[in-house]
Amino acid sequence: MIFETHAHYDDDRFDGDRDTLLASMPERGIKRIINVGASIASTKTTLALTEKYDFVYAAVGVHPSDVGDLNEETYQWLREQAAWEKTAAIGEIGLDYYWEKEPEVQERQRYWMKRQLELARETGLPVIIHSRDAAADTMEVMRQAHAEEIPGVIHCYSYSKELAQEFVKMGYCIGVGGVVTFKNAKKLKETVEALPLERILLETDCPYMAPEPHRGERNDSSYIPLVAAKIAELKGVTPEEVERITEENARKLFSKVR
Ligand code: NI
């Protein structure tokens, strides 16, 4: 069975077939899904999905590209949603300097990343961290927030294997998705080779990041076996072992998931 740790099924690219697609997941081996909020609006639509599907759980939080959504009132609202029995994580939170070059806005991203890390600590939930072109500042904010005391995952990991080992030392898991199947994904393949399987989580980030041979198409969780097969090849184990161990990892981290 597969535990999908990062999906966005509330995205409008699923408007045409969301219900049939989601309903088909358990029979395709996808037994648990964490749908991840990225703004206040998508946190609301994420929570609605958890009411409809027993195997869908929520991460509540605001992505760095949407920190304009955050103020004391919406932060308080997020805190209230963390108490919902199917809220399994705070996320996705973090820094994205690829899409945001403005220093003041980057500063605002760091501020709200720190606040949402505090929210995770306070609520006892793990964090899902998004970090793009912001490796040093991500590590800096995490150190300031004593993130080694807050369990979590660096999702859609895109940095070096050395930095991955730093995150692992802080207790973090590394989220691996479709990119690992890309021909030019040398760094991520090296990272997967270097890390213990016990620190890897399977994810899609769908509708984005479809694995080969579907690169560029709309992604969904049924493509995860292609990712598991590539990881198995890199680690010299069977795909079944990858699925089993990464499921255990996910259950350990997202302990509210039944
Ligand atoms: Ni995402």
Q: What is the topology?
A:
Elements: E1 2-7, H1 18-24, E2 30-36, H2 40-52, E3 56-60, H3 72-81, E4 87-96, H4 103-123, E5 127-132, H5 135-144, E6 152-154, H6 161-169, E7 173-176, H7 186-194, E8 200-202, H8 224-235, H9 239-253
Parallel strand pairs: 1-2, 2-3, 3-4, 4-5, 5-6, 6-7, 7-8
Helix pairs in contact: 4-5, 6-7, 8-9
This protein binds nickel (II) ion.
Brief overview:
The protein has helices at residues 18-24, 40-52, 72-81, 103-123, 135-144, 161-169, 186-194, 224-235, 239-253; strands spanning 2-7, 30-36, 56-60, 87-96, 127-132, 152-154, 173-176, 200-202. It is of the alpha/beta class and 258 residues long.
Written description of the protein model:
The chain is an alpha/beta fold. The protein has a single domain, classed as Alpha-Beta Barrel (TIM Barrel). The protein has helices at 18-24, 40-52, 72-81, 103-123, 135-144, 161-169, 186-194, 224-235, 239-253, and strands at residues 2-7, 30-36, 56-60, 87-96, 127-132, 152-154, 173-176, 200-202. Strands 1-2-3-4-5-6-7-8 form an eight-stranded parallel β-sheet, with helices on both faces. α4 crosses α5, α6 packs parallel to α7 (186-194) and α8 (224-235) crosses α9. The longest helix is centred in the middle third of the chain and has 21 residues, at 103-123. The radius of gyration is 17 Å and the shape is globular. The protein starts with a strand and ends in a 5-residue tail after the last helix. The mean pLDDT is 98. Residues 6, 8, 36, 92, 205 line the site of nickel (II) ion (NI). Nickel (II) ion (NI) binds at residues 6, 8, 36, 92, 205.
